[in-house]
Design a protein that fits this description.
The structure is a single chain. This protein is an alpha/beta fold. The chain has a single domain, classed as Rossmann fold, CATH 3.40.50. The protein has three helices and nine strands, in the order βαβαβββαββββ. A six-stranded mixed sheet has the order 4-3-2-5-6-7, with helices on both faces. Helix 3 links the parallel strand 5 and strand 6. Helix 1 crosses helix 2. The protein starts with a strand and ends in a 7-residue tail after the last strand. Bound molecules: 1-O-pyrophosphono-5-O-phosphono-alpha-D-ribofuranose (PRP).
Length: 179
């Protein structure tokens, strides 16, 4: 059975929106120090790699890995740090770069965790926002696309580890996704 139901966003649409987000973020840069883009492994890597190249100004990159889903399509709600940042963020302007916000639990945890390290500012940029699925509120500064509650893969997003390298965003058939 073909797992893919439809294409949600083609590569041109994604690229255009990423360019717009990069321009918006560029306007907000302080200018006195580099922005630190913190991408959340593994899903945000492809988005982050494209986004930072659309930002005009100094940008540094660091990475953090957290786990909440495992191979399942349903969030367990529990968040663990699997890989921490390499550098201190004290006094830095931080931009958290996520691929998708679903329940909001991952970002709530990340915000609390990173705010405790005393950055000068902290903002959130997500490519996708499944607003209907939100369980906890998080202040999101930049949103690429608000999307319906469907199982989305591609452009970094996965199902059981697969599809991350697909250049488009795809919706999988509900019956193909085992909870
Ligand atoms: C996805 C996504 C977010 C999180 C969002 O990660 O990258 O980090 O789920 O869900 P939430 O809003 O319900 O917390 P996933 O666990 O699939 O891992 P990945 O980053 O390796 O793709």
């Amino acid at each position: 059975m073909d797992e893919v139901e439809r294409v949600l966003l083609r590569r041109e649409a994604i690229a255009k929106r990423v360019q717009e987000l990069g321009a918006e973020i560029s306007e907000s840069l302080s200018g006195d120090q580099p922005l630190l883009a913190v991408s959340i492994l593994r899903g945000a890597v492809i988005f982050a790699a494209d986004l930072v190249r659309e930002i005009q100004g100094m940008v540094e990159m660091d990475f953090m890995a957290v786990s909440s889903y495992g191979d399942s399509s349903v969030s367990s709600g529990a968040v663990r740090v699997l890989k921490d940042l390499d550098e201190s963020i004290e006094g830095r302007d931080v931009l958290i770069v996520e691929d998708i916000i679903d329940t909001g639990r991952t970002l709530k945890f990340l915000l609390q965790n990173l705010k405790a390290r005393k950055p000068r500012s902290i903002q959130i940029c997500t490519l996708l926002d499944k607003v209907d699925r939100r369980e906890v509120e998080v202040p999101v500064d930049y949103v690429g696309f608000r999307i319906p509650d469907a199982f989305v893969v591609g452009y970094g997003l996965h199902y059981a580890g697969r599809y991350r390298n697909h250049p488009e965003l795809l919706v999988l058939r509900a019956e193909a996704v085992t909870p």
